[in-house]
Prior knowledge:
Blueprint: E1 4-7, H1 14-25, H2 52-55, E2 62-70, H3 73-83, H4 90-106, E3 118-124, H5 126-132, H6 135-139, H7 144-148, H8 150-157, E4 181-187, H9 190-211, E5 220-229, E6 250-251, E7 285-286, E8 321-330, H10 332-347, H11 357-365, H12 383-387, H13 434-438, H14 450-453, E9 459-460, E10 463-465, H15 477-481, E11 485-492, H16 495-507, E12 533-538, E13 544-549, E14 554-564, H17 567-574
Parallel strand pairs: 6-7
Antiparallel strand pairs: 1-13, 2-4, 2-5, 3-4, 8-11, 8-14, 9-11, 10-11, 12-13
Bound molecules: delta-meso nitroheme (N7H).
Amino acid sequence: MKGQRMSPSPTTDSAESSSINQRSMVGVPTTTESLGQKAPREELLNVDDIQGNILAGFNKDFQTFLFLKINDKNIVKEWLRTITPTISTVAEVHSFNNVFRAMRVRRKGSDPRGLVATWFNIAFTSAGIRALTSEEEVEKFQDTPFRLGMHERAGLLGDPLDANGQPTNWVVGSPPNIPDILLIIASDDPSYLEAKLSRVKESIEALLKAMGDASGKAALEIMYEQRGRTRADMPGHEHFGFKDGVSQPGIRGRISREAKSFLTERVINPQDERALLLGRPGQPLIWPGQFVLGYKRQQHTDPLKPEKAVTPSPAWARNGSYLVVRRLVQDVPGFWKFVTAQSAELAQTAAFAGMTAERLATLFVGRWPSGAPLMRTPEMDNAALAADRFANNHFRYVDPTEPISLLPQANYPGDNFPQATGDNLGVICPHAAHIRKANPRDMPTDTGGANDSLTRMILRRGIPFGTEIKDPLHPTVEELREERGLVFLSYQSSIKEQFEFLSNHWANIENQPQAGGHDPIIGQNTASLNRSRKITLIAGTGESIDIELPIEWVIPTGGGYFFAPSISAIKTVLSR
Length: 576
Ligand code: N7H
């Protein structure tokens, strides 16, 4: 079989499973008995100073990203002072999201139409901070990738250097097109977004007039405009057809002086000690310093004992966060043609009889198109499970899951779906499946155990761009002419240890965090001259197959490493 190598089972031997089980338990309180601790005290988050998209998440169907270049720093500083009051804070976005969610629950899952908000956030590259402050100020930032810029790290990320996707071909983000500023405008309603976008553009154009520069050189230039919108045919799904934005870490911390005013809702019955570790079932609570500078950070072995906060450098970086933006083009017909042809071949084998294109694609992702996790429904998609926010993330890879007792929830019948069984060997969900690579949960890894993996988590805020392809196996000429993909965004407190680690270590390396191949969605294999990747599938019979993935379906075409400062830092350091 072309591109495939069938071999006997690596092992279904209980000795290996139990040793993995033991390793995964080191320092990992996965059961209630192993905890026996009190709830840790959680810090007060400065929700009026932190930008809203970081900790609350805009979660809007329509978003536009403006990449700007500073030509006159004094005029831009003046402009910054005028726009700062319009920057959306965590306090605002969080309260809106709460109202929206409560109404959705009352309306049994349908969106409350007419409840609309339009948000605005800002971030700066190191070049932008240099332009507004000084080289010394940039040198104070501790994150080396941020100081260097994404284009300088493209090789390390595994990006193609001699073909499609090389930084010199990026639409934005590589010299001479390195932006200084990123504006994010987001709304539930496209007409509100357009209105806000026009106002922002007018404010930028007004600067040109203020300068009175006959050469026409603007004080602030719009270098590139990237539109993003949810798919009209499948809202919330990315272009390969899978529900995105299902799994997000919970964030520890309070929004007011009240003891229980937690930013992330806590739904687990406090009688169950897992309430100390999780917001919702399957959603670990992470110390806020992993995402925002100046707060307590996650410790590598004990999730209840945080590392002390480090003093941010520069000091004005407090309440700010590093933002990764990556414009990723998706080859939707290529992906579906490949999985269709491969699944037909696999279906001919005894071990993988019955394989379909949808199932193979699901094995690549780790969730079914609806968002239902393979670990909870190994054989077929289950839309009801996908829609159940208390069940759709409640699974692990080593230990089986048991039902969790929740605080009373309106209109909720309980998680009555079959629970996940353990899957040490990667039979149900391959080790290289995208979500297992990106979050190995309770699986031991090359760098530690489950608690160590919590230090790698990121807050994803991406949105698709481009129009969908109606029938990926028969795309029209017009559909092929247009680019589509994901504007990937993630917030973290270390680009190096979080986004870059997930990308160049776990996604790109075939035997990390566990042997089993490259991430078929975002992995890039620079270890082979032709960049060809592989994924190992293991059948229920124990036989395994290596599938060769000769082409990549996700191509980086632009982006940058940004810093999203606090509102007070914009008001003071950056605009004075
Ligand atoms: Fe991924 N996809 O459609 O396959 N992602 N992702 N991602 N991703 C996730 O749980 C996708 C990308 C993560 O906690 C889902 O929200 C695509 C980058 C992480 O279990 C789906 C692209 C990075 C998770 C996709 C892309 C990540 C995750 C399941 C690019 C980081 C959570 C839905 C075009 C370097 C894992 C969900 C967990 C989930 C897809 C990019 C990371 C469907 C198409 C660049 C941490």
